[in-house]
Write a structure and sequence with these properties.
There is one protein chain. The chain is of the alpha/beta class and 274 residues long. The termini are far apart. 33% of the residues are buried.
């Protein structure tokens, strides 16, 4: 089998398994992410890799491949403005509309945990500035399809390199405890708001329940237009009326005006569920 045909087979496998649509020119990305894994397993080609996965679907190789292809570097408080919009605008509005009700936030495709923990820190900062307003607190449900990522999230420990991406010294001192080897652990009070669950965005969201706010940032860019639209429809079904959807800075919600209303926040845009 030719290398091009093997690459096309792998693209089809990845899209079917987790929805990710690889560009036709991304052979270099596949090589860089899978070379080590293939060498460790004595696999010499993409075709052999796919055959091995199909022959042993429960052997763990499939998950390792998906982990390697979907794990992305992420930042604390990525783009800054979503967390400020949440703190300054969305939380006060929701508390006013439903006083005494616990807020539920979904962090979809949470990767290594920076987003949900940033959300928990934002909730803490809001409570410090507005004592007694968020009486019932907030629950953050963070999901990812990678078992390895979720294990790392639950450990809630980060090295100095990861800590340096977007975290201020003030927040580091307030919300983390030092650990040996230059590592830092998220404090228990911040961790306690966050519940991590395994979820493939192609699967049903029914078990998650309803949310006031959904952060689905910097993940839809990896899907085809049809899959993206399907995910946005199903996210809408999880949002309470008037709930908010936060997308990535480079992502736009094209279409679906019957489901979402665009809200200009200066800076940034969020989407309100109709």
């Amino acid at each position: 089998m030719s290398a091009n045909l093997e690459f096309e087979q792998f693209r089809a496998f990845l899209e079917k398994t987790c929805g990710i649509l690889l560009g036709t020119n991304k052979q270099y990305l596949v090589s860089s992410r899978l070379n080590k894994l293939m060498a460790q397993n004595g696999i010499k080609s993409l075709g052999e890799l796919i055959n091995r996965i199909q022959a042993q679907p429960r052997a763990g190789l499939r998950e390792q491949v998906v982990d390697a292809m979907t794990t992305n570097e992420t930042l604390w408080f990525r783009d800054t403005y979503p967390f400020e919009v949440l703190k300054q605008r969305v939380l006060p509005e929701m508390i006013k509309a439903s006083p005494g009700q616990r807020l539920r936030i979904w962090s979809a495709a949470c990767s290594s945990g920076q987003e949900p923990f940033s959300l928990s820190m934002t909730i803490d900062e809001f409570e410090r500035s507005n004592p007694g307003q968020l009486k019932a607190g907030a629950q953050i449900v963070a999901t990812d399809l990678s078992g390895a990522m979720l294990t790392a999230c639950k450990a809630a420990e980060y090295d100095s390199l990861a800590i340096g991406r977007g975290l201020s010294q003030e927040r580091l001192q307030r919300y983390f405890d030092p650990r040996p080897g230059g590592r830092w652990a998220v404090k228990a009070a911040i961790r306690s708001r966050v519940e991590f669950r395994a979820l493939n965005l192609l699967d049903s969201y029914a078990a998650l329940g309803k949310f006031d706010i959904v952060f689905c940032r910097n993940v839809l860019i990896y899907f085809s237009a049809d899959v993206k639209k399907d995910i946005l429809r199903r996210i809408h079904a999880t949002l309470k009326p008037g709930g908010y959807l936060f997308l990535g800075a480079s992502e736009a919600l094209n279409g679906l005006p019957e489901l979402y209303q665009m809200v200009q926040c200066s800076p940034g845009i969020v989407y309100r569920a109709r």
